Amino acid sequence: MDDLRTPVQRSAFWADREDHRQWLRTEGRHLLRHYAKARVPNGFATLGNDGTLVDDTPQGIITARKVHCYSIASLMGLPGSASLAEHGVAALLDGPLRDRERDGWFADAAGPSRKKAYLHAFIGLAGASATMAGVPRGDELMQAAVAVIDDHFWIEAEQVMQPSFAADWSNPEAYRGANCNMHTLEACLALLDATDDTRWLDRALALARRFGHEIPSAQGGTLPEHFSPAWEILPDYGSDQPADDTRPWGLTPGHHAEWGGLLLKVEAACLAVGRSAPAWLLTDAIALFDMAVSLGWAPDGHPGMVYTVGFDGAVSVANRAYWVQAELANTALMLLRRTGEPRFDTVYRQAWDFIADRLIDPSDGSWRHEIDAEGALSGVVYPTREDLYHDFQATITPLIPVSASLAGGILRT
Fold first, then answer.
1. Burial code of 79-104, b = ≥16 C-beta within 10 A, e = fewer?
2. pLDDT score, position 2
3. Is residue 183 flagged as an active site residue?
4. Fewest Cβ atoms nearer than 10 Å: which of 82, 327, 406, 409?
């Protein structure tokens, strides 16, 4: 990793300093205030780079993520957050985002669309966080999401999610993917904290084992993302859409880091319920994080983590996405907490310096979602500023112990 500072002593770790922690709290509040502007009658919509609504069409992913984030903010004791979370819960239960005839949720309120595991994982996460925060009807949303996941998406024989269906639940997609299962794992851990039902830990462990342990072990430490239903790697998948926002071609360094963090959360979940945690959870978390840094940090000589690289390690999409830097910081922090190794604090500092220098927009309190290698605003992958999910979570992770879920960690702190 280029241009990293000399490792520091334990007493100097940023996450232990009250000034840094106060900076994170202030930054989180800026984000919460900014994205409250995304509220529309039937949920939450997309903000543009100027901080105003692109249009008033509610988006399923954005609404679910807002419920999750404002539920966490309510748990933290931030006034006004609960009403925003309650608005999102009601929208997901009663509004046009929900398919009242066949059940499940649509991508947006514009009309029927394919029903995706990626979206439903976030609705499960939203319901779990809202339940833990005591948001009215949060449990109703959680139970509705669980029913859809159990009835349609979870493939028991494979212990993974079916990626998508047509709007009427026909035409299951002939594909298996890492991204929707990554966020399903996150949802499983939140559902574990919200319900104390250890079947969610069983599912989380199964997902962690396949994507965080078995696949990287067979692929030289890398994590390909696209597979056939027979679990054959699809090396050309996405070659016609290398800058896709959820299924890009090649390897995604930010996801390597994010999976590493999830392995640490699974380990924490095991210990919290009195289970022995497999040793590979920590070993592979470190390996995935190191691979993320090796593949993604400044491979073109410019600071920051790139979006994607090819299977040969060559940069595919050099632009720096906001969430990639946030997940690098999150996992560096959790590894620092777990191991005490100063090198993780070094990366943590580097990530936050990059975020502060290049991504935080001082004019409105949001983050630029994407910049090019030279630091100019770009929109190849993210033409708008969709939401605060990754960035807000990055301001919370250092404030609590490593926990199965953020909401659960806040409740227990």
1. eebbebbbbbbbbbbebbbbbeeeeb
2. 45
3. no
4. 82
What residue ranges define each of the domains in the chain, with the CATH number in brackets? 10-412 (1.50.10.10)
Catalytic option among 30, 87, 120, 390: 390
User: How many CA within 13 A on the CB side of residue 89?
Assistant: 29
Maximum C-alpha span of the chain: 59
∠ CA 176-154-120, rounded to 5°: 85
Strand ranges for 242-324 from DSSP E? 308-309, 315-317, 320-321
pLDDT in tens, 82-129: 999 999 999 999 999 999 999 999 999 988 999 999 999 999 999 999
Position 357, amino acid:
D
Choice among 255, 256, 302, 369 that is catalytic: 255
The answer to whether the CB of 248 falls within 8 A of the CB of 304 is no
Strands 320-321 and 39-40, how do they pair?
unpaired
> Which residue carries 């991504």 as its tokens?
359
How crowded is residue 297: how many other Cβ atoms within 10 Å of its Cβ? 24
User: Which of 401, 406, 408, 363 shows the shortest CA–CA distance to 49?
Assistant: 363
Any idea which residue has 């349609």 for tokens? 152
Of 173, 174, 191, 47, nearest to 114 (Cα)? 173
CA distance 376 to 302: 12
Q: What angle do CA 387, 14, 79 make, to 5 degrees?
A: 45
Residue 390: active-site member: yes
The mean predicted confidence, pLDDT, of the chain is: 96
The answer to whether residues 322 and 369 touch, using CB atoms and an 8 Å cutoff, is yes
